[in-house]
Amino acid sequence: MSFDEDELEQIKSNPASKIVVIDNPIYFAASRIFLQVPWEYGGMGGVVGKKYEAVKDFLEWNNFEVKEWTPIFLQGGLIWAQEAQKAKG
What we know:
By secondary structure, this protein is mostly helical. It has four helices and two strands; from the N terminus they run ααββαα. The chain has one domain.
């Protein structure tokens, strides 16, 4: 999906917009990598977060600083999994 500059400004200025605009190319690349990393599942079959080794591998393959970004990805995966559990009720 692509937008012209006016459309992007309208989206960014609208607090009700559900479209996320990531202007920073590093954060954009990180978000794409995060979505590709496989999830880790617990004993009861629920998602518990992102797989540690997979996070490190994906970051290395995409030339990201592994030590800097690994905790960010793992924490993001944990929060995502917790929110999914809350949504289930």
